[in-house]
Amino acid sequence: VGTEKINTDIVTLTRFLTEEQTKHKEATGDFTLLCHALQFSFKSIAYYIRRATLINLTGLAGSANVTGDDQKKLDVIGNDIFVAAMKSCAKVRMLVSEEEEEIIMFDDYPDAKYAVACDPIDGSSNLDAGVSVGTIFGIFRLAEGSKGTKEDLLLPGTSLVASGFTMYGASAQLVITMKGGNVNGFTLDNALGEFILTHPDMQMPKKRAIYSVNEGNSLYWEDPVKDYINTLKYPSEGEKPYSARYIGSMVADAYRTLLYGGIFAYPADKKSPKGKLRILYECAPMAMVFENAGGQAIDSHMKRMLEVVPEHIHDRSGIFLGSYDEVQKVIDVHKKYM
Ligand code: AHM
Ligand code: MG
Fold this sequence. Notes:
- It is a single chain.
- The chain is of the alpha+beta class and 338 residues long.
- The protein contains seven helices and 15 strands.
- The strands form three sheets. The protein has an eight-stranded mixed sheet with strand order 2-1-3-4-5-6-7-8, sandwiched between helices.
- Helix 1 packs antiparallel against helix 2 (30-59), helix 2 packs antiparallel against helix 3 (66-88) and helix 4 packs across helix 7 (324-335).
- The protein is globular, with a radius of gyration of 20 Å.
- The chain binds 2,5-anhydro-1,6-di-O-phosphono-D-mannitol (AHM) and magnesium ion.
- The site of 2,5-anhydro-1,6-di-O-phosphono-D-mannitol has 11 residues, from strand 3.
- Belongs to the FBPase class 1 family.
């Protein structure tokens, strides 16, 4: 009586990856090693994000412009951690990071089969307030005989072999999906230093009356977007309007949308005709997660997000992602204008 039932057979990410690898007879173990480096970078970034708040607090006493500097420092630290992890696993040929203008080539590993795109700390404007931020990643397998040029990375999301994100919130939550597979969520147990499978086979709700968008941009929205959002706010007689939730960290807004359902949008508008979010390391990886969890993701032309091909590595796109039925509503309203 009173004794807690202790699970002595938990599934860690390490165990999960080993089990995945054994399912694929042709697997060489390279992908598993790459994922081990990934999870190390998440643990490490999670640790520094927690510490950064403490540094900011002590910093308040002395220096004036400490906030801006520290925030930048953390962006740089996150990037450096990620780049070092990807390099040291020896399985990555090239890397695109939001923090780096140019593609990074790991010439020490000319035969490495993978290319990675990442936003090491997305939503960093939220950092100083201790609001959730995250890392987004997408993994491509380079085509046979690829010369390792940057054109090799201008690929649609359908070429991703795996993608996901880690949200640094009350706890660090890692969500990962593989091509054609399901979506699995892990929670970092800080004491064990392990990601534990807490959300196996995530399936998102088919619909939910929550919308997540920066409404401050509505002046710049195109008519179909205005029309669509208005249908949520001013529904037909007898129906309830939607709730608004917007954190301003894509990873946190997307994670909530994945769990609770609803829609997240960052549409292209008159001010940003190509949208704000980046295709390779924000839109495409998220789109893959949402589709594999039963949702939908489209761009501002109502095209499937995963089929959008970036023209350059930092190319942007408008995006709507969320519950299947909620994204369908966006498409239906836009059809009236086509
Ligand atoms: P960042 O990569 O510079 O952090 O910008 C991306 C972030 C997303 O996390 C978030 O969805 C969006 O920018 C918020 O933008 P806005 O402040 O315009 O609403
Ligand atoms: Mg970003």
